Give the backbone structure.
Amino acid sequence: MILVTGATGHVARPLVDELLAAGRKVRALSRDPARAGLPDGVEVAATADLPLDGVTSVFFVTAAFPQGHEEPIGKMQAAGVRRIVALSSYSVLDDDPKNMIGVKHRELERRIDETGAERTFLRPAGGFAATALEWAERIRTDGIAPFPFKDAQTAPLHERDIAAMAARALLTDDLVGEAPLFSGPESLSYSDRARIIGEVTGEPVRFAELSHDEARQEWLRAGIPAHAVEARLRMFAKLVGRPHEISPVDSYLGRPGLTFAQWVAEHINSFRKVTT
């Protein structure tokens, strides 16, 4: 039995489909199992219950456990879970103590190592394509994509590529003990992202560059913690005018990584303008 935490999230949801297609038994955790909307054949359970009976492998995402990773990882260790595949971050390579994303994920990796389980730490680099959904409402209503760093470059990853990496780590021994770092297939500025959304939807999108103060207030209103807002501002400032290094998934997945334009095409209804 494979346990998938955060099963309705951007990465875990396509992972559930990959595991089912491989004929594996899946127990999926959701904060609200009644509304999870997962496929037939999936055993759905509440995250708070964390049922581990019969579980041999776990896909672990920290976002599923806002109270912290210590207790759930401890329970997995006590239950004798054999393999843990964790969605970590390439930020673990940044030893700046102000980088709270890096600090949190280094602690996660350290704790999982302490369990003695077979482990894989997935370290996506370049950001998630799905962060473009933060623009969805503004693009639908007035065709604007607001962001503070027009020329900051990343290599956005399609969530299905991250899920495919997780599936390989869970279903084969190829990545046991590894910490693969991988990115999307192309370096794009945030103004590039806005342009591509317009090209794919056929509805031009105007990039609107925010001041740092405007971005800070917008992100705080969106519920992003203050420390994470400041970390974001520092991180994106470092990316201005610097093409992102590409770490392809090709050698892992046997195919090219999915592009940002492909991601937009799959989520096109999120960006279609509102008509009356």
Summary: The longest strand covers residues 118-125. The chain has ten helices and eleven strands.
